[in-house]
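Box 3.1 — From sequence to structure: Phenylacetic acid degradation operon negative regulatory protein
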Amino acid sequence: MHARSALFDVYGDHLRARGSQAPVAAVVRLLDPVGIAAPAVRTAISRMVGEGWLEPVALPAGRGYRTTDRANRRLDEAADRIYRRTEPVWDGSWHLAFVAPPPGRSARTRLRADLGFVGYAELADNVWVSPFHRSELDEVLERAGALVRTARATDIDPPPTGAWDLESLERAYVEWLATADDLIAQQLDAHRDEDEAAFAARFHLVHEWRKFLFADPGLPSSLLPDDWPGRAAGELFASEATRLKPGADRFVARCLDV
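Predicted structure (token representation):
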């Protein structure tokens, strides 16, 4: 687990509901049970400040960091997808984005990753498709310095679901269903303190589940098979995350109150 990714997890899953800020010492205490050492935490914080995700703040308990407005938007959008709070109503049409990519290989690579994260797939060279007009699209393109023209298509034959690697996604969900219980059990057994164990188990659960944000575009149910394993995987995740939350919350409160 990378420290930067772990910081996104702890701010999104725990600190977002607690003012989106915390002293550095508290963040170090929070990430210790999941194997992230203090020097790695501080290095990742510095990097995220430079990237515009965190900003320094003076807190009564000492120097701390809070998420920026940009980070809060990304965390809230990710949380909606992680916990599948709502499923948009699909009108049967497809949103097409004709993207003029920015110069520079690294910028183009980052843009492709960001477009995939918000649910678009490349249907043809520089033509991206999604069943919905994602609100995050404009910010992604503006940040990359890319130009875009958009259109709506009501009839694409065959349907562009093949733009996503649904076979690999299906296998990933099947594997998730087979391994999630062991992932939780390992963390619960590894910590003597029950609340710390619940925090570590939920943390690893959310961290592994969050990887689906980069692979699952959130296609409407009508476009997926009746036995799509993502539904059962989502139910298992929601059930276990809810079960572990009270203990995890108590551990977070202890870390913040020291």
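Summary of the box: The longest helix spans residues 229-257.
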